[in-house]
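Still learning. Any example?
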Amino acid sequence: MADENSQPIEEVEKKKDLAFLLESSYPLLKEFRDKCAGTFKHSQSVAGMVEAICTELGLDATFMKVAAMYHDIGKIVNPKYFTENQIEDENPHEKLDPRISFQIISRHPADTALILLNDGNFPVDLITIAVQHHGTSVVQFFYDKYKALAETEAAEDYFRYKGQRPKCIESMILMLSDSIQARSRSEVQANKFDPANVINQTIDSLSADGQLDDVVMRLGDLQTIKVVLAKELEGMFQKRVDYSKAAEEGEKLKDVEDN
């Protein structure tokens, strides 16, 4: 009799086979690189962070590296509307109502799901994890822009992604890595980068907004995630990190249960 915790052979083999989706010659990955160079580089960085965390926690690193590499593939629909793909003095949002900008930006998780489903080689559970990377968070830039321009009070819920909050530790790892990498890049450009603060503030902000409420994990895993993220940011941006500062106060993350 098979162990009740064991996976079907077909599922295990399918996960092992996913490595081919990371080969540079894979058509969808090549299209991604050609159409969205900035987003592609961001995804590479996120994939490296996710792989390091999953390896440390004993999760399926290849499966999650694929999810991370393709989590933003939906941006190939409108690449120039995302800052990482824009050249200097080229921002189409400057002439748009922030509500229209929000609609363009917030559709990319749904576009990701459609593209990966149509490809046919991506497991549904992987797609589900990939499209939860923004949860139901607010697209803050365009919400703030609308508030500054509107004569009436803005409705925050209008500017929220219409997806699902992370439902498992894998989805949370992708959300944290994505948010922290993007925020780090912005702060480096603004010459105010503090890796430990980026890690702690990002986690605290997502937690306060309820984005991590559905994730059950051990507090020890959260500490490990923080330390690995700190090391990854040090290598990525050549900035020495105080690992103890990055790992502190993990117990404050609400709705995380110690198993």
